[in-house]
Structures are given as structure tokens and as C-alpha cells.
Amino acid sequence: MTKNLWNLLNSTISIFMLLFLPSAVLAGDLYVQSIKARILSSPSLGSRIVVEANRGEVLKELEKEGNWFKVSYKESTGWVSRLLVGPKPPSGKVSVLEETEEKLEKGSRRRASAFATAAAARGLAEERARISDQLKVDYDGLEWMEKINISDEKAAMFIIKGVGK
Predict the structure, then answer these.
(1) Model pLDDT for residues 82-131, shown as the tens digit of each residue
(2) Residue 49: helix, strand or coil by DSSP?
(3) d(CA 30, CA 16)
(4) Which of 40, 60, 81, 124 would staple 47 via disulfide (CB 3.0–4.6 Å)?
(5) 79 touches 69 (CB < 8 A)
């Protein structure tokens, strides 16, 4: 193959990739962080539920609009709140509420939706952005710190000696 033909072929392939692959490259996997995530027909809380995804399941991100992601899940397409999903699989930690064997339905009021619960836990109303978006949290670093074990003796010596004395 001549050098000019080879360059033309490379240029054609590059143009094809630039035109048709960005949507596939930009679309990432999102993981359901809440116990269940409702995938809705439009980016609004009052819209029709298309399908529900369970914690840890993978959703394909198609686009983002404000606080909503348009996703494909199994053979359905819809919108999910960004409060219910994340870029990493949920951590292995188990909620105390998930482990309880008590029946909470008896004598309890109507439960809040998964979205309302997640939003309340994060201190977010639908119409305002999270303050924490300004300060990104390093959950991997936090998990690493939680694995460090310090003996009581070392902690006591640290307190006795003080910092910077």
C-alpha cells in the first residue's frame, strides 16, 4: 500500500470515529445506589414509571439533563434521578434497616419514595443543587481509612504526647 493511500485510510477511519463514536464513548455505566431506582418516562417526579432497577444493577447512560440521566436498562429507556445512581458500584456495607426482621408496615405511616428518602438523606430538594457538589468526596480514601486499625495503647500515647510538642 502506498503511503498516500495509507494516510487517506487513516484519515477516513479517524473521521468516522470522531463522528460516530463519541456517544458510545461518553455514555458510561451508572450503578443503582439506592435499594430501588424507578426509571421514569420523562425527567419529572410525576411521570409514569417505565421499570424499576434494584441496587447494584447497571444502567447505560445515554444523556444528562440537569439532575436527571436518560438511561437504557434491559430493553427499556427512561429517566432516573442522579440521586439514585452513581459511577461506581455500591459499597459492600449493609444498612441496618435492610437487616431488620421486624415488620415496619404495621402501624406505620405511608413510606416515603426511594427518591424522597435519598434526597432527604443528602439534604436536597429537587429544585436546588447539592452543596456537596462543590466539594467532591473521596469514598475510596474513606474506605481505606476505615480499614486502618490503631490499638488503644497507640491512641493513648498519641493523646498523652500531644501533637507538635
Answers:
(1) 999 999 888 765 555 555 555 555 555 566 667 666 666 665 554 455 55
(2) strand
(3) 27
(4) 40
(5) yes
Q: Which CATH architecture has domain 26-84?
A: Roll (2.30)
Please, are residues 60 and 78 in contact by the beta-carbon 8 Å criterion? no
* 8 A C-beta contact, residue 85 and residue 67: no
Q: Which three cell numbers stand for residue 146?
A: 476505615
Residue scoring higher pLDDT (164 or 78): 78
What are the cell numbers at 53?
432497577
Contacts with 57 (C-beta within 8 Å, 6 or more apart), sequence order: 31, 32, 73
d(CA 100, CA 144): 28
pLDDT tens per residue across span 27-46? 689 999 988 999 999 998 88
Please list, residue by residue across 82-112, b when 16 or more beta carbons sit within 10 angstroms of its beta carbon and e when fewer do: ebbbeeeeeeeeeeeeeeeeeeeeeeeeeee
**pTM across the whole model:** 0.45
Kindly list the domain boundaries of the chain, sorted by start residue: 26-84
